[in-house]
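In the laboratory, one determines a bound structure by crystallizing the protein with its ligand and collecting diffraction data. In a computational setting the workflow is compressed into a single prediction: the sequence and the ligand go in, and a structural description comes out. We illustrate the idea with 5'-O-[(L-methionyl)-sulphamoyl]adenosine.
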Amino acid sequence: MPKFYLTTPIYYPSGKFHIGTAYTTTLADCIKKYKQARGYDTYLLTGMDEHGQKIQQVALNNGKTQQEHVDQMAEEAKKLWELMEIDYDDFIRTTEERHEKKVEEIFDRLMEQGDIYLSEYEGLYCMPCETYFTPTQLVDGKCPDCGREVKKMKEESYFFNMKKYADRLIQFYHDHPDFILPESRKNELFNNFLKPGLEDLCVSRTSFDWGVKVRKDPKHVVYVWLDALTNYITALGYLSEDDSLMKKYWPADLHIVGKDIIRFHGIYWPIFLMALGLELPKQIYAHGFIMMKDGKMSKSKGNVIYPEPLIERYGLDAFKYFLLREMSYSQDGTFTPESFIERFNFDLCNDLGNLLNRTIGMINKYFGGEIKKYPTKVSEIDKELEQFASGTITQVEQYFDTYHISNAISEIWNLVSRTNKYIDETAPWVLYKEEKTEELQSVMYHLVENLRKIAILIKPFMVHTSQKILDQLSIDEQLQTWDSLKDYDKIVDLKVTSKPEVLFARLDMEKEVEEIKRMMK
Ligand code: MSP
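The predicted complex, in structure-token form:
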């Protein structure tokens, strides 16, 4: 069985997770479920990035010890992933012993082999991002990542010799053109950071102590990014007695990250791995941001929307559908209450929900709910529909395989629309009136067959809706698998439910928009 190791970033427990942070996990979970359906032995890692000055400060502000604060946040994160049915295989926290011990060892080793050396650092420091910048990297004198004020700081620090590995990394980029996705972000990284030449990276801090201490010089704590990035291997038991997971799953097949942290993953992480003599991950995909009408989500703007109330009111499947559909492969996505309700009403209720209801209603009315077997008489238009569906499957697989999830979903919805149109074109009510039984049987067969395919295709991101469709149509288990998508003539002796259940009930636009606005307050 081929393996597929994928990771989300590990999250900062600095505040409650909004729908933007939930997007990364939703995407990762969808890719995992797709890969599983394709027969991969998958392993999904997520967790929490619990060290650093920012966390120390948040804990202090909340009147808690750092450990109390991160413990509570880890519980909250797990609760959210449970609500979102994120099927992760491990949840690593950087304050766990299994991680801290290995970070100490890694740092020691890099020091011993001369990749990390002691020097002095003077620079412009952005505290929320925990990153130093040179004056030229600033944008309007502020942090290029978050736009906040930077502070002049000087400290004795350990440095990582990035320069030593820069050429090897450049060569790696050339040899692996798909290493960083999408291409636009790879080019940005290459042109803005690699090409001008890398600076050595400051990898320790003395200004605070909430972190992994450098074993041989404990007034220093390890830079949070060096600490955090190694989670992808410490979780697999790197340098441990039992490193069977490491042997099985490393290198990672896919690191999923947001565009704001691609520099750390696309430059520093590969270089750390080179220094450790480990293989580099196969791919890193940096997605865009979920934006609001008035820009980034922020508490001060009062435009933050959290996953829980949306899921509670509209259901998990509608929530995931919206996020994954709205965010394109290489651009940002936008959340507005209007677009959320529109997608719910049009895509889910009108297009998909109605297709199922109309189909079940007609089979009950015309054939007592029964479909016997593949029709004896198949028209041109039926054949054309079969071809359309098989074209959709090929396209959807290609899109899923290259992480173009929003495109995959559009393709599936094209099939939904095409199938709805097929009802209008074949006008089953006329066939019924004219007693063209064989033709009518064929139309009903093809409708069920397409709904079966649609249900299988949406399963990676709409598990419940998928199962509801398959159950209401009483599809045999063997015909619920991804492999069975290539079949088109295997349905026999099927009886649809006589009491169809509405998948998505139409919402009142005005009222619901108000409701979502209230959630944002
Ligand atoms: N702790 C680091 C990651 C270390 S990985 C070794 C971190 N944590 S985070 O909590 O700030 O962000 C977690 C993820 O959420 C990142 O991938 C980030 O890009 C993503 N997002 C944060 N806001 C987002 C949106 N508004 N939209 C989409 N993703 C967003 O970064």
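The two ends are 48 Å apart (CA to CA). Keep in mind that any predicted model is a hypothesis to be tested, not a measurement.
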